[in-house]
Every structure is written in structure tokens, then in C-alpha cells.
Design goal:
The complex is a heterodimer of chains A (360) and B (140). Chain A has 360 residues and is of the alpha+beta class. Chain A folds into 2 domains: 228 residues, no CATH class; 110 residues, Rieske [2Fe-2S] iron-sulphur domain (Rieske Iron-sulfur Protein, 3-layer Sandwich). Chain A contains 11 helices and 11 strands. In chain A, strands 2, 3, 4, 8 and 11 form a 5-stranded antiparallel sheet that branches. Chain A is elongated. Chain B has 140 residues and is an alpha+beta fold. Chain B has 2 domains: 31 residues; 94 residues, Immunoglobulin-like, CATH 2.60.40. Chain B is 23% helix and 31% strand. In chain B, strands 4-3-6-7 form a 4-stranded antiparallel sheet, with no helix packed on it. The relative contact order of chain B is 0.18. The chains are: A alpha+beta (360), B alpha+beta (140). The interface between A and B is large, with 48 and 39 residues.
């Protein structure tokens, strides 16, 4: 089971036994590249800051380096999802996206700690009380207490970071976990306000404001584009007199791939594996990823996000794994694929439809 | 994602695409081009200091020296006032720290004659304004 082996789960079940983080070579390499990039970024930022302004304060440069690093990383994290939906070549970036998210929180945390150290630690008030109360100019845009937006965003990123582990994914269930992690969009808005009401009120460079606006436009544009593009797939297809639904001609499905359609309120994935046509729920049990965007490898569909695998004919992960997805009855009539919209129980065998002449 | 979350995500994406520009563009548009407010006696100050909301005048002391009464409408939280007789443009070994620059008027005892007042931002690590003492109008 290549995909699951890639996850490093070994001989354990994906669902019956919880196992802690499984590090593997890909994850180590991913994290190594990520943190090497972060170190280089901070070093270049601070070094460049001293070159451009030899009198600059090193703590201030570090505050900015970590703050900008966290903001850039959050932009990157939020672009991966829509990019992967728009172009499958970006799918590998999804594999370890949670590590990027946790790194974003850690950079933000260092940024906040340095701010407390620099501006709030030497006073007669508790430093955290000082952060929350020292700026009360809510009547002014240029003096607005932008710190509060940063604190709120950091709290959201903290909750996301501590629940990013598969332990929480499994125990909260994927839909709830995904809903919780959609608060990242709120964190993004809060950070946009934190930056625009904070540093950009004091740094008057049009270039900085322009780059900031460009970053916002890129994230929001990609998110909107990807969500609108997938909107058409959610239109329900009509059923015939027998209750079956036509999802299209056999020729529309490349060998080893699937087409996605919506029936009975949820998406299904119609796979072609040589001369076989099989239909599974499009929702992976791990993170509810779109199985229909995955490949068929030796009769197993491999989830494009994290490599979970399912047999085409019964939606069952091969032993020793125990994940199951619902299957659907399917038949071919004159080269057209018809699907019964009533799902079988997860893991139920469903006879594949056979392409008689195995047309390409 | 399951359908309900996809629909929620679609609404969020559309909402953000509308709300974020509506919030951020005015915030950036309305920011002061240079951090400034009009100042009293601006004509006597170098243009850059005047544009940055600095108010100032000289007050004679009983010992024959001068106090510089300064105030700033500036938002920067960490501006410090230095005096340098040698006309430095950034604080160095020969610059004397007089104190923090505040929104309300404060007197700074100038330790010598002539020279310049340096307004320096610690956070930004750069000189914010240089005001020759001679540019400050004596109080009447």
C-alpha cells in the first residue's frame, strides 16, 4: 500500500490504532527545506536591514523579519489549496501543508514575544496587560490598537497548530476538524487589519503597500476562482425512470482516472481502471479530500492529498488498513455510464461495469 | 471537503473577496501621506520637521541658557530627542540624550549653544528629523 506506507504507518491500521506522528523521509526533507528557507529569510532580512540602515535596532529588525515571515507563509499556505484544485501539479504541496501552518504559528509567536520584550516588558504593568491596554486610540485610524488584531490572529493560529495533529483530526472527525481549521480565513483577515493599521501606517512606502495589496489580491483571487470553478460540479444530475443517473460517456474518463459528479447530495468519483468502471464516494476518510482527483494504482485509488488508498470494487482500504468509503452500483448502456444514486454501505462490494470492447 | 463545507467555503471566499478590499483599501488610502499634523510656528522650522508635526520654540533660562519646548503630533511611540553641537545627523558619541518626544509640550534643557536637535526613532533605527536650534523661534 504505497500511499499509506508513504505515511509511515507501517503494519498498523489507519483507524483502529492511533499512532503518534510518523516521520518519514519526505516529511523530514520537507521540514528541512522549510526551516532552512526560514533561517535564510530571517538572516537576509536582518543582514539587509543593517546594510541599508547601519543604526537599525536588531530587535526591531527581528520583529519585522519574523512578522513578515509569518505573513508570507500564511499567504503560501492559503494559496496551496486553490492552486491544487486548479492544477494537479500543485498537489504535492498539500502533503505537508499542516507543517507550514504550524511553522506560521511559530513565526508569529516569536514575532509577538519579541514585541513584548521590546515594547512592553520594562514597564510597571504586566507585559501582557500592557499589550492589551497600552494603546486605546480606537478613534484614530493611524493610531488604532492594531496589536489586538495580531493577538486574536495568533490565538486562532495557536488553536489550529495544537489541533493540527491526526489525533485531533480523528477524534474531532474530519468535517468538524475542517470547519475548525477554516477559521484560518478569519486569522488572515485579522492579520490584514493588523498590518494595514499597524506598520503600514508608519511605513509610507507605496511599494510596501502595493506588495501587501498584491498578496491579498492573490490569495483572495485564487480562493474565489477555485471555489467558483468547483461550483458547477455540485449541480445534481437528473435520474431516469429506474432511478439511475447518467454521468457521461466512458470515453470521457482517461484510464486510471475518474470523473466527478454530484448525486444524492454529495460528490461521487467514477473511476476507469482498464476495462472496469467503478464508483466510490469522492470523500476520503482521512481529511475528506477529493478521491476523484487521485490516480488508480494496481486497482487501488490513491488519495491525492496524503496517499490513503481504497480498492475500487468495494471502497475498502487493503489489509491491514480499515478505512472504508461508500460504493455505488454502476452499469453501462450503449457506452454511457449510469449510477444508482443510493450509496452502498462503506466497504460493500459492487460489481464493476465492464467495457466490452475496451475502447480507448 | 463534503458539500456543506464546500458551500461554506464558497461563501467565505466570496465574502472575503468583497470585505477585505472594502476594509483595507480605505485604511491605506486614508493614512497620512507623511505622519503629520499642522504645527504652530512651522515657518521657522526646517520643512521636514514641520511636515512631521513637530512644534517647537526656545525659552530662555535664568542661567542664560536655553530650553527647547518641543511637542509632536506624531504617532511614533519611541521618538527620542538628542542635542548635538557638532551638527550630527544621527546620534553618536557626541550627542546628548535630552529625553523622549511627547505629544504634549515638554522642555528640554539645551546643554550648550547652537547645534542641532536630533529626533531619533529607536524602533526604526533612524533619524526622524534634524532641527537646528537656530531654527526655533524664541518665545515672546
Amino acid at each position: 500500500m504505497g500511499g499509506s506506507a508513504g505515511l509511515g504507518l507501517g503494519a498498523r491500521s489507519m483507524s483502529t490504532h492511533y499512532v503518534s506522528v510518523q516521520w518519514n523521509r519526505q516529511k523530514r526533507l520537507y521540514d528541512l527545506v522549510l526551516w532552512a528557507g526560514i533561517v535564510v529569510f530571517v538572516a537576509v532580512f536582518v543582514g539587509g536591514g543593517f546594510v541599508l540602515n547601519p543604526a537599525a535596532d536588531e530587535t526591531t529588525l527581528l520583529i519585522r523579519a519574523f512578522g513578515i515571515g509569518a505573513l508570507l507563509l500564511l499567504h503560501f499556505v492559503l494559496c496551496i489549496g486553490p492552486l491544487a484544485r486548479l492544477d494537479s501539479r500543485f498537489l504535492p504541496l498539500l502533503y505537508n501543508r499542516r507543517h507550514l501552518g504550524v511553522s506560521t504559528f511559530l513565526l508569529g509567536l516569536v514575532h509577538a514575544a519579541l514585541v513584548v520584550f521590546q515594547y512592553h516588558l520594562g514597564g510597571d504593568r504586566n507585559a501582557l496587560v500592557s499589550v492589551l491596554t497600552s494603546n486605546q486610540h480606537i478613534e484614530s485610524i493611524s493610531r488604532f490598537p492594531f496589536e489586538l488584531f495580531g493577538v486574536a490572529a495568533l490565538l486562532i493560529l495557536f488553536v489550529m497548530a495544537v489541533t493540527s495533529h491526526d489525533f485531533w483530526l480523528k477524534n474531532l472527525t474530519p468535517p468538524l476538524w475542517k470547519a475548525l481549521h477554516m477559521t484560518v480565513y478569519l486569522a488572515f483577515v485579522l492579520l490584514a487589519l493588523h498590518v494595514s493599521l499597524g506598520v503600514l501606517q508608519q511605513e509610507h512606502s507605496s511599494l510596501l503597500a502595493g506588495l501587501f495589496g498584491l498578496g491579498l489580491a492573490m490569495v483572495l483571487g485564487l480562493q474565489l476562482w477555485a471555489s467558483l470553478r468547483g461550483h458547477g460540479l455540485d449541480r445534481e444530475l437528473p435520474a431516469n425512470a429506474e432511478g439511475y443517473i447518467e454521468v457521461g460517456p466512458v470515453e470521457a474518463i482517461p484510464d486510471g482516472r475518474a470523473v466527478i459528479a454530484t448525486i444524492a447530495g454529495e460528490r461521487i468519483a467514477v473511476f476507469r481502471d482498464g476495462h472496469r468502471i467503478c464508483v466510490l464516494s469522492n470523500v476520503c476518510r482521512h481529511q475528506n479530500a477529493p478521491l476523484g482527483e487521485g490516480h488508480v494504482v494496481k486497482g487501488l485509488v490513491t488519495c491525492p492529498w496524503h496517499g490513503y488508498q481504497y480498492r475500487l470494487e468495494d471502497g475498502q482500504s487493503p489489509p491491514p488498513f480499515t478505512e472504508r468509503v461508500p460504493t455505488f452500483r454502476v452499469k453501462l448502456v450503449e457506452g454511457k455510464i449510469w449510477v444508482d444514486p443510493k450509496p452502498n454501505l462503506p466497504g460493500t462490494y459492487s460489481e464493476p461495469a465492464i467495457i466490452e470492447d475496451n475502447r480507448p | 471537503m463534503i458539500r456543506s463545507l464546500r458551500q461554506a467555503h464558497r461563501l467565505i471566499a466570496a465574502g472575503l473577496a468583497l470585505a477585505v478590499p472594502l476594509a483595507v483599501v480605505p485604511i491605506l488610502w486614508l493614512r497620512p501621506a507623511v505622519m503629520s499634523l499642522p504645527i504652530a510656528g512651522a515657518s521657522a522650522l526646517p520643512r521636514v520637521a514641520a511636515a512631521r508635526g513637530l512644534r517647537g520654540r526656545l525659552e530662555s533660562r535664568a542661567d542664560g541658557g536655553w530650553n527647547a519646548d518641543l511637542a509632536s503630533d506624531e504617532a511614533a511611540p519611541d521618538l527620542l530627542v538628542y542635542w548635538s553641537q557638532k551638527g550630527l545627523t544621527s546620534p553618536g558619541a557626541n550627542a546628548v540624550l535630552l529625553g523622549p518626544l511627547l505629544p504634549q509640550t515638554r522642555s528640554y534643557a539645551i546643554p550648550g549653544t547652537g547645534g542641532v536637535l536630533l529626533i531619533y526613532s529607536v524602533a526604526y533605527g533612524r533619524t526622524w528629523a534634524v532641527v537646528p536650534v537656530s531654527a526655533l523661534a524664541p518665545a515672546r
